[in-house]
Amino acid sequence: MFTELLGQHFVHTALLAGAVVAVVSGAIGTFVVTRGASFAVHAVSELGFTGAAGALVLGVDPVAGMIAGSLLVGGVLGLLSLRGRERDSAIGAVLAFGLGVGVLFLSLYQGYATEATNLLFGSIVGVSDRQLAVLAVVAVIVVAGIAAAYRPLLFSSIDPEVAEARGVPVRALSVLTFLLLALTTAEAIQVVGVLLVLTLVITPAAAAQRLTANPATAILLSIVIALVATEGGILLSLQQPWPTSFFISAISFAAYLGARMRPWSL
Question: What is the mean pLDDT of residues 206-227?
Answer without folding.
Answer: 94
